[in-house]
Amino acid sequence: MQDKSEATNFVPFKVSLCNEREVLVREITGDDKAGLLAAFNKLSADARYARFMAAMQQLPEAMLEQATHPSVEREFALVAIATENKVSSIVAGARYAAAPGSDTCEFAVTVDDDWHRLGLARRLLGTLIDIARSRGFRCMEGYVLSSNTGMRRLAKRFGFSDLACPDDATLRVVTLALQDSERKR
Ligand SMILES: CC(C)(COP(=O)(O)OP(=O)(O)OC[C@H]1O[C@@H](n2cnc3c(N)ncnc32)[C@H](O)[C@@H]1OP(=O)(O)O)[C@@H](O)C(=O)NCCC(=O)NCCS
C-alpha cells in the first residue's frame, strides 16, 4: 500500500445541496470535539442506533478523542459544516478506519436528521471512496442495519455489494472493491 504519510492534503470544498443550503466539507481536526459532541447530542435515538448499532445516550470521551484525532496511516474523517445566522455547526460526518496493515477500510456516515435527503451523504461517501482509493486501500466495507433503507440504497448506488452478515441477522455487510471499480454516483 501507499505510504499514507505521503498522501496529499485534503482541500476543503463547498457543496450546494438540493434546497439551496450550502455546507463546507473539510477534514476533522482536534478542535472539533465540542462541535462533534453537539452534533451527536442533536441526533435522534434512531439515527444513533443506525450509526453505532447500540443505544448510545452519550458519546464517551475516549470515542470523541479518537474521532477527532484520526490516525494518519489508517483513518480519515470528514465533517460538513453549515453556517446559519453566523453560527457554524457540524451537520454531517463521514469516516473510514482500517486495522493496522489491512488494505480494507470500514466506513461510517452520519447526517443530522434535519439535513436528510439532500444528497449530503452521497457527496461525503463519494469523497471518502476517492480518498481511500487514492491512499491505496483495495476494499471498503460497512455494517448497516437491515432496516436501514437509506444507507443500503446509497451503498448500492456506489456499486457496493450487499450481503447478509454471517454473525448477525439484523445486519448487512456492504462491500466495494476500490482498485478495480469504476467510480459511480
Ligand atoms: C443513511 C444516511 C447517512 C443518509 O444520508 P442522506 O444525506 O439523507 O442521504 P442522501 O440525501 O445523500 O441520499 C442518498 C440516497 O439514499 C436515499 N435515501 C436516503 N435516505 C433514505 C431513506 N430514509 N429511505 C429511502 N431512501 C433514502 C436517497 O433517496 C438517495 O437515493 P437516490 O440517490 O437514489 O435518490 C442518513 O439517513 C443517516 O445519517 N442516518 C443515520 C446514521 C446511519 O444510518 N448511518 C449509516 C450507517 S454507517
Your description of this structure?
The chain has about 180 residues and is an alpha+beta fold. The protein has a single domain (about 5-175), classed as Gcn5-related N-acetyltransferase (GNAT) (Aminopeptidase, 3-Layer(aba) Sandwich), CATH 3.40.630. The protein is about 25% helix and about 35% strand. It has helices spanning about 35-40, 45-50, 60-70, 120-135, 150-155, and strands spanning about 15, 20-25, 75-85, 85-100, 105-110, 140-145, 160-165, 170-175. The chain has an 8-stranded mixed beta sheet, with helices on both faces. Strand 1 (about 15) and strand 2 form a beta hairpin. The two termini are about 25 Å apart.
Short description:
The protein is an alpha+beta fold and 185 residues long.
Shape: globular
State the end-to-end distance. Answer: 25 Å
Poorly predicted regions are none
For the record, what is the CATH homologous superfamily label? Gcn5-related N-acetyltransferase (GNAT)
Strand order of the largest sheet: 1-2-3-4-5-6-8-7
Q: Examine the secondary-structure arrangement and name the CATH architecture.
A: 3-Layer(aba) Sandwich
What value does the Rg take, in angstroms?
Answer: 16 Å
Bound compounds, each kind once, are:
coenzyme A
Mean pLDDT: 93
Query: Topology as H/E string?
Result: EEHHHEEEHEHEE
Structural class: alpha+beta
Helix content estimate: 25-40%
Question: What's the CATH topology label?
Answer: Aminopeptidase
**Number of H/I helices:** 5
* CATH class division: Alpha Beta
| Largest beta-sheet characterization | 8 strands, mixed
Count all strands and give the number: 8
As a percent range, the share of strand residues is 25-35%
